[in-house]
Each structure stands twice: as C-alpha cells, then as structure tokens.
Amino acid sequence: MSEFTVLIVDDDREIVDSIAIFLKSAGYNVLKAYNGEEALDAVTEQEVHLMLLDVMMPRMNGMETLMKVRESKNIPIIMVSAKSEDNDKILGLTAGADDYITKPFNLSELAARVKSALRRYTDLGGMEKKKGVITIGGLCVDTEAKSVKVDGAEVKLTKSEYKILELLCRNKGRIFSADDIYRNVWNADSIIGDNTIAVHVRHIREKIEINPKEPQYLKVVWGIGYKIEG
Asked: Residue 137: CB partners within 8 Å, gap ≥ 6?
C-alpha cells in the first residue's frame, strides 16, 4: 500500500467509485467525499496528500471548497470538471489549484497527473518527511521505530536482518564486504569462510524484494560484497 492518500470529491458516486478502484490498483490509499463539506471534514480529520476535486457540486461547489482548503492546507489539488472553457481553468488555477482535468478523461492520464503532482510536492518539500526514516524507492526504514515497510506494507525482519538492512540503507551505494557487515552488526572480528552473512542477505531479499532472484534493492557485487541501490 502506498504512503500517499488521495481524497476523491465528486457528487457522482459512480465516478468516485471508478476513480477509487483505479487509484487503489495503482497502489494509493483512497478516501471518498460527495460534497465540499464532507471534503473539508476529511482533510481536517485525516492525513490527505492530494485531492481530486469536482467543480460542480451541491451545498458547496469545488471553487468554494478549494478556497476553504487553501486557508490551512498546501496539499496538491487537481480540479475535475465537465467544463473545458479556458476561463474556468484559469479561475481554478488562480484560486490555488495545482492542475485541471476535464471530463471525460482517461484514467491512466489522471493517474499520471496524480503521480506528477505528488512528486512535485514531495520534491519541493511540501510534505514533511518523518525524522529518522530512510526512503529508497518503495523501501522505507524507520530507524527510530526499527521497522521496515515496502510499498507501504510492513515487513518483519529479525534483529540481525534489520541491522544489516539499516547499515546498507544508511550507506546507499556503498559496497560492504561480508567481513565489514559482520564487524558493524555483531561488533566482532570477521568470520572468514562462514556463510552467515550470505544466509541473512538471502532472507532479507525474500522479505523485501518482489523477485528475490532479480532484486531491486539489495544487490550482490560478486567477489566484493553487498550494497543497497534504488
């Protein structure tokens, strides 16, 4: 599951459901609201990283909702509307929207816009990064909680496995020999000829990699050692 939560706001429940299904399949957490008032409650009570906001809604329209949210939140907001006139787009963007997409739209294009907006937001520092968390792609190592997540799902490691992974993640790209790892993790002299490290690395791969035989993160540099890439 993704670390990002998207709030979908539209009075058409079928549209909300179809977008929700697609974004969930893309790995996002999804919240739903069917009018502006529900949207304001959602962003107040829960952590929302991006909002898809329909313009034409009863009770409180999208523009009013946008301006209310902007009073306290800096999250990316993508306006969604059946209107395609330039004036409507300009009004939305001027009011504080980050992007604008018109109905009917391609769901793949919408997902691409969501991904792009979140990337800009995080790259520019709009989202506070949790202290003590090392993030490499979808791999997150919380050095304070001593926990590991891959694509938002928690991974259970033994104490030694965690120490090895944290060591490599703290030094992303650096190659550690088996002796180096043993000295750093066990605080002992090297154990030349022992396959302890290789066994631990294999177990870590089985837990954090989609395909342990073709690892994305924990790589072996043959004859030298191990490193984390991402």
From this structure: 216, 217, 230
What pLDDT is attached to residue 58?
A: 81
Per-residue pLDDT, 90: 76
- Provide the edge-to-edge strand list for the sheet that holds 50-54: 29-33, 5-9, 50-54, 77-81, 99-102
Low-confidence ranges of the chain (pLDDT < 50): 1
Residue 7 confidence (pLDDT): 96
d(CA 13, CA 35): 11
Question: Where does 132-227 have alpha helices with state H?
Answer: 159-170, 178-186, 196-208
Of 91, 123, 155, the position where a domain reaches its end is 123
Chain-centroid distance of CA 70 in Å reads 22
Of 97, 123, 149, which residue constitutes the final position of a domain?
A: 123
Assign 156 to helix, strand or coil: coil
pLDDT tens digits along 137-166:
888 899 888 999 988 889 999 999 999 999
Same-domain pairing of 168 and 78: no
Residue 220, C-beta contacts closer than 8 angstroms, at least 6 positions apart: 201, 226
Look at residue 159 and tell me if it is in a domain. Answer: yes
Q: Is residue 128 part of a domain?
A: no
Range of the domain at 116: 5-123
Q: Based on the fold, state whether residues 24 and 113 are members of the same structural domain.
A: yes
